[in-house]
């Protein structure tokens, strides 16, 4: 079991090296009405404007949105996926580390109370 955990830990560390850039947030694709009364977006059925892409994230507790081009949105989605992959790798590293280090405490004598 110890060898398997060490191998897993090593593989996880190597997978960190393959990560590309990371960003946090969400990319949204929006179709929106403009509000002009005679516009096609007010028809029935409406033909909304767009698509428009927005990257939304929290900065100092406030929601910040930035409009993106389609290409920027594609890249941002990759970077956000990289951040989520980083989170999964770190969680797996923590679990493997816990199992590896917990063995040091198993079978060890308990300290005497003073």
Give an account of the 3D structure:
The protein has one domain. The two termini are 36 Å apart. It has a 3-stranded antiparallel β-sheet, with helices on one face. 46% of the residues lie in helices and 22% in strands. The protein contains 2 helices and 3 strands, in the order αβββα. A hairpin with a 2-residue loop joins strand 2 and strand 3 (62-68). The mean pLDDT is 91. It has helices at residues 2-17, 70-105, and strands at residues 26-32, 49-59, 62-68. The protein is α+β, with helices and mostly antiparallel strands.
The percent range for strand residues is: 15-25%
Radius of gyration: 24 Å
Low-confidence stretches: none
Quickly count the helices.
2
How much helical structure, as a percent, in the residues? 40-55%
The end-to-end distance, rounded to whole angstroms, is 36 Å
As laid out across the biggest beta sheet, the strand order is 1-2-3
Order of helices and strands: HEEEH
Structural class computed from helices and strand pairing: alpha+beta
Mean pLDDT score = 91
Main sheet properties: 3 strands, antiparallel
Number of strands: 3
Number of domains: 1
Q: In one word, what is the shape?
A: elongated
């Amino acid at each position: 079991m110890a060898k398997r955990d060490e191998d897993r830990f090593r593989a996880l560390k190597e997978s960190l090296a393959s990560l590309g850039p990371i960003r946090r947030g969400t990319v949204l694709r929006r179709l929106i009405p403009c509000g002009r009364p005679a516009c096609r977006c007010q028809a029935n059925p409406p033909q909304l404007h767009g698509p428009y892409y927005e990257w939304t994230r929290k900065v100092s507790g406030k929601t910040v949105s930035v409009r993106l081009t389609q290409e920027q949105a594609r890249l941002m989605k990759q970077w956000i996926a990289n951040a989520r992959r980083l989170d999964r790798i770190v969680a797996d590293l923590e679990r493997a580390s816990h199992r590896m280090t917990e063995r040091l405490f198993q079978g060890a004598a308990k300290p005497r109370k003073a």
